[in-house]
Amino acid sequence: MSQVRTSELARPGWLGALRHPGTAALYALLLLSMGLALFMAFIFAPAERVQAEVYRLLFVHVPSAWLAFAAFGVVAVGSVMYLVRGKSRWDRLALASAEIGVLFTTLTLVTGSVWGRSVWGVWWQWDPRLTTTLIMWFIYVSYLALRAYIDDPNARQRMASVLGIVGVVSVPIVWFSVEWWRSLHPTPSVTSPGGGMPREMLTTLMVSVAAFTVFYVVLLRQRMQLELAATELGSLRERLHERNEESA
Amino acid sequence: MSDLLYLFIGFSAVWIGIFGYLVYVTGRVRNVRDELHDLRGQLDAPQAGREASSH
How far apart are CA A163 and CA A161, in angstroms? Predict the structure, then answer.
């Protein structure tokens, strides 16, 4: 029995993990899509008339923002499903996606700030889009802080689920902020009618979004594995503690 | 600063952020699995001893 368990837990490592066909295919897709996205961002897409080369930040800024929105949507779905079904795997999905969403929101803010410095001449503006994005970032950092603060697993999962559902309201607010209030930030050029983006740029943007989405799946999978292992570790520690108390 | 430098800073931030997070999570998975391995060994050890003595 113990031998079976030991082999199940044998640490695969980076190369070992790639022996699994699904994992290998996912990593191959990741490398391929990222390579293609980089090639298109720097070689295929032409320079922009006004911003010249710096506009290429679009190909990391927009995919980061898109992934942040998608990740917080997944948090809401996982939270609803946890409250309805009560299965921990939904809560694990919500937690993993929230952490990745915070990462991508951070990258959106950083790349936006760098771009803003180049185009507007300032690192930060209290503009509606930037401000609402920062508020969204704070909401999900609070979500992670809440989870770290509550010890009781059931209370933690329930309260986090409620915040995960309420927090997703920030996503449409960020999206529509450029239309509801006067903003320096441009309106979405992909979805607005006659957006005027040349076809090469639009194709490159789509490929970049797809590549970042693959990256999101890889990160989500890895983060969920971590949470599963950590949960198992907690229950084993409890068992060991109980056994030590019994023997004492 | 030139536009190319801003471009470099923006792309670097994204790649360092994403790959840094992936390496961090993978490292934590490995540490937790190692610890799980050790704990299971501790839990199974006396059991194995009892099984051996019963034969």
Answer: 5
- Judged by a CB distance cut-off of 8 A, whether residue A92 touches chain B is no
Chain B residue numbers touching A1 (CB-CB < 8 A): 44
ipTM: 0.81
Domain ranges of chain A: 55-185+201-247
- Interchain pair B3, A219: CB under 8 A: no
Instruction: Tell me the residue type at A14.
Output: W
SS3 A191: coil
Identify the CA nearest to A156 among candidates A240, A91, A237. Answer: A91
Residue A115: strand, helix, or coil = helix
Please choose, from the candidates A71, A168, A187, the residue with its C-alpha nearest in 3D space to the C-alpha of residue A129.
Answer: A187
Quick check: A124 and B34 in contact, CB under 8 A? no
What span, in angstroms and rounded, lies between the C-alpha atoms of A222 and A220?
Answer: 5
DSSP type of residue A46? P
Substitution target from A236, A237, A246 for chain B, most B beta carbons within 10 A: A236
- Cβ pair B44:A2 closer than 8 A: yes
Percent of residues in chain B assigned helix, strand, coil, to nearest 5? 95, 0, 5
Using the Cβ of A110 and the Cβ atoms of chain B, whether some distance falls under 8 Å is answered with yes
Amino acid occupying residue A48: E
Tokens of A33: 């899509």
Rounded CA separation A41/A163 (Å): 37
Tell me if A74 sits within 8 A of A94, measured CB to CB: yes
Q: What predicted TM-score, i.e. pTM, was given to this entire model?
A: 0.85
CA pair distance B6, B13, nearest whole angstrom: 11
| Per-residue model confidence as pLDDT tens digits over A155-206 | 999 999 999 999 999 999 999 998 888 777 777 666 655 567 888 899 999 9
